[in-house]
Amino acid sequence: MKIFVARLAGTPVFDPAGDQIGRIRDVVVGPHDGNPPSVHGMVVEIQPRRRVFLPITRVRGIEAGSVIFTGRLNMRRFEQRDTETLVIGQMLDLTVRLDGEPVTVYDVAMEETRPSFWQITKVAIYRGKRRRETRIVDWGEVTGFGVLQKDQGAAGLIAAFESMRAADLASALHDLPDKRRIEIARALDDDRLADILEELPPNDQTAILRALEVERAADVLEAMDPDDAADLLHDLPDEQATQLLALMEPQEAAPVRRLLTYADDTAGGMMTSEPVILPPTATVAEALAHMRQKDLTPAVAAQVYVTRPPTETPTGAYLGVTHFQRLLREPPSTLVGSVIDPSIDPIRPELTVHEVASYLANYNLLAAPVVNELGRLVGAVTVDDVLDHMLPEDWRERAHRDD
């Protein structure tokens, strides 16, 4: 039975008791010196975002939608050896040669050639820049897998990881060699790359941004949430940050500039400047429609902030907040100005991260309104913002290391 590796990406992995313990993120193979490379095992991602190694000898079944293994799984973080190759991360999109002509790899297939011994036996390739002519050929028919290539491309890998959440794809990119990570980042569209950058450690963020053309880097910053863009710019040299801000569209740069005026560990430095804001004359139906926007995080979508016009930060006079749960209990035609929660006071931008955490904990809130000295709403601090700042600075890197 042939198993095409790219289709395994994201497949749930189950232990002998039938409990899901993670998902397949890649397949590891040995040296490919002309003979079909042997499969050493699979990279499995378990929570919290740790990648471990599952030897192929412990795989007892690969079925539609599941991989089942026997024995115990070693929880040590996966470390790729110099002689090993990640199929999805490093083989897909390679340019190899078939009958002397260049072709591109978009998948490979593995087979169990004898009990518990798997090899890569087939290569799925296409000619040209698009998959207009595709073929599946034997491993031995193509050459060039061991050649270091200047620009490998990334279409196949991106297709394999298309359904992954941004945080999961960020985790996958973090584990790839620097060259491959940059190739993939350049191939992603601005919105997808922006989402992924928000989930990467600061060192990865700045390395990718520096590798992009400066105009493209500014476009990606525009696609990021203003608070995340501000955090990233904080980590860049002042000259580069100033240059990027100057290249951003003025309306996109304005909220980022405001956030950069606050200290990083204060409510102003953590807040998002784009919460859900409506005037008091808006209806409950309108509020719920705004909260259903798919690009809002659950914490941001949990409540609506009510202000006098204008309703873009910094707003007109702040009036109060109403919660998603309260809105669900009201008739659609009810005005949001009549269902404001009077018990929630706003916080000031200069509050420290620990003061904000105490405030959210005291009132059991997912987010808090931030109001300046003029009584205008300038943003909202969410619980995930607070967690990001209370965890160690290298917490994302630690998620990829052994305890």
From TrEMBL:
Listed A to Z, the keywords are: CBS domain
- Write out the transmembrane intervals: none
Asked if the Swiss-Prot or TrEMBL record annotates the protein with the keyword tRNA-binding, the reply is: no
Cite a single Pfam family from the UniProt record.
Answer: CBS
Task: Extract the Gene3D superfamilies matched here.
Answer: CBS-domain, MgtE N-terminal domain-like
Q: What positions does the domain CBS occupy?
A: 340-397
Q: Does the keyword Transferase apply?
A: no
Q: Domain of life here?
A: Bacteria
Name of this chain's protein: Magnesium transporter MgtE N-terminal domain-containing protein
> What is the protein's species of origin?
Nonomuraea guangzhouensis
